[in-house]
Amino acid sequence: MLDRLFLKYLSKQGKVAYFVGQILLFALWAYILLVPMDYSMEDGKPLFVIGMIVILVVWGGVCLGFWRDKTAKRDN
Q1: pLDDT score at 76
Q2: Whose CA is closest to 70, among 27, 10, 4, 15?
Q3: Residue 46 domain-assigned?
Q4: Stronger pLDDT, 70 or 31, i.e. the higher one
Q5: Residue 50: inside a domain, yes or no?
Q6: If both were cysteines, with which of 7, 41, 47, 63 could 18 make a disulfide (CB 3.0 to 4.6 Å apart)?
Q7: CA 57, CA 72: separation in Å to the nearest integer?
Q8: Residue 70 φ then ψ, to 5°
Q9: What is the per-residue pLDDT across 21-61, written as a single tens digit (0 to 9) for each?
Q10: What is the residue range of 19's domain?
Q11: DSSP secondary structure string, the chain?
Q12: pLDDT at residue 69 above 90?
């Protein structure tokens, strides 16, 4: 649902950066939970989901800040 909102206002380069950044940040978050913090797949599941939501919102805001499509029409 948030993806549609972000993709509506992102430029083509911003859409690529949005998805690549999400994949990389999710992988980094999973690595941090599993290796340095030593969580198992069962114990770290709630923390991983919360982290995914935070990454989605924060990275979406960063992408909108840098790669907003200047020609997108706003619905008022």
Answers
A1: 55
A2: 10
A3: yes
A4: 31
A5: yes
A6: 63
A7: 20
A8: -70, -20
A9: 999 999 999 999 999 998 888 888 999 999 999 999 999 99
A10: 9-67
A11: -HHHHHHHHB-HHHHHHHHHHHHHHHHHHHHHHHTTS---TTTTHHHHHHHHHHHHHHHHHHHHHHHB-TTPPPP-
A12: no
Q: Are 24 and 30 in contact (CB under 8 A)?
A: no
Measure the CA–CA gap between 37 and 30, rounded to whole angstroms: 10
* 68 φ, ψ (degrees, to nearest 5): -70, 135
Structure tokens at 74: 């706003």
| 74 — pLDDT class (breaks 50, 70, 90) | low
- Amino acid symbol at 41: M
- Specify if 59 maps to a domain: yes
44/56 Cα distance (integer angstroms): 18
Q: Please say whether the beta carbons of 56 and 2 come within 8 A.
A: yes
Please state the domain count of the chain: 1
